[in-house]
């Protein structure tokens, strides 16, 4: 993209928005951590990221990944924010978007959002999705004003289940040969697959499948904040969940309207860390099965 310039009422001078480069990760990582930590602390919740180092590593991987479109905002040569778009599926996932707490509320965040949404439309994405911290009224208002609809309340949950296995279910590491079955299942449940995302997870060794009666009935790219899962039934999801000693990052995102699964998680000793919200534009149909979104969607 060409550089985009705008005036900001908060950041002195013009704000320039450009494509992110790997070398931007350090400055953007600090801002990302500071922004999330400031908001979380002000509402009495733990930060999604343990420190600026983890935020820097996360953004470094996104900024250098060919499947992500990432932008950086700067004023007078100083980086003040960033945003990313996951383009690995027909549905695009937005985030993380963060602005330096010292220059928030000046319009930079809105412009970063508008530009990634323009990018998604230009590339013919069927829709865009994001997961928002439900306690953060300002971000909810921004996304709603940009056309995002609230689709699902989520409960971020962490812990180790009391139950350690599910009768009749076998959980194992996913293999490349499983991708076709997993993608077929995703299309049945959601109407689209996340084959590229899942293939990368298989290569990284984080993906799992669950089998019942010799058939793949569910999978997870990772049992973590950045992982998603899709299954035929709650029983299949439960089998995946009990296979983990803990969940990466803040926890798993459990659709709160799935009352059976939510109560099962609570009865098994998992605790709610924070409330979140899945929001979407464009294509959306109610999932025809059991599922867990990632923090992107």
Describe this structure in words.
There is one protein chain. Helix 1 crosses helix 2. Strands 1, 2, 3, 4, 5, 6, 7, 8, 13 and 14 form a 10-stranded mixed β-sheet that branches. The protein has a 5-stranded antiparallel β-sheet with strand order 9-10-11-12-15, with helices on both faces. A hairpin with a 4-residue loop joins strand 4 (78-86) and strand 5. Residues 7-11 have low confidence and may be disordered. The chain has 297 residues and is α+β, with helices and mostly antiparallel strands. The chain contains 8 helices and 15 strands. The chain is globular.
Low-confidence stretches: 7-11
Strand content: 25-35%
Shape: globular
Which architecture name of the largest domain does CATH use?
3-Layer(aba) Sandwich
Number of DSSP strands?
15
Average the pLDDT over all residues and give the rounded result.
95
């Amino acid at each position: 993209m060409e550089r985009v310039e705008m005036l900001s009422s908060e950041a002195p001078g013009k704000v320039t928005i450009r494509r992110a480069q790997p070398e931007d990760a350090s400055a953007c990582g600090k801002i990302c951590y500071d922004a999330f930590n400031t908001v979380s602390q002000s509402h009495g919740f733990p930060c999604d990221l343990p420190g600026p180092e983890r935020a820097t590593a996360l953004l470094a991987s996104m900024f250098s990944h060919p499947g992500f479109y990432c932008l950086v905002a700067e004023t007078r040569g100083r980086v003040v924010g960033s945003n990313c778009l996951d383009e690995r599926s027909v549905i695009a996932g937005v985030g993380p978007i963060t602005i330096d707490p010292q220059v928030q509320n000046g319009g930079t965040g809105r412009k970063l959002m508008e530009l990634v949404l323009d990018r998604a439309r230009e590339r013919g994405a069927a829709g865009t999705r994001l997961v928002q911290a439900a306690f953060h009224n300002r971000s909810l208002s921004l996304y709603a004003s940009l056309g995002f609809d609230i689709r699902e309340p989520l409960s971020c949950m962490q812990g180790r289940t009391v139950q350690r296995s599910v009768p009749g279910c076998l959980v194992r590491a996913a293999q490349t040969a499983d991708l076709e079955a997993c993608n077929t299942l995703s299309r049945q449940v959601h109407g689209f697959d996340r084959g590229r995302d899942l293939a990368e997870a298989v290569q990284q060794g984080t993906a799992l499948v669950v089998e019942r009666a010799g058939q793949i009935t569910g999978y997870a790219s990772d049992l973590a904040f950045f992982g998603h899962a899709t299954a035929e039934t709650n029983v299949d999801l439960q089998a995946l969940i009990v296979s983990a000693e803990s969940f990466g990052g803040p926890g798993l995102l459990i659709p709160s309207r799935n009352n059976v699964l939510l109560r099962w998680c609570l009865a098994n000793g998992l605790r709610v860390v924070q409330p979140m919200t899945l929001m979407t534009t464009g294509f959306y149909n109610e999932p025809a099965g059991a599922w867990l979104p990632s923090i992107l969607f």
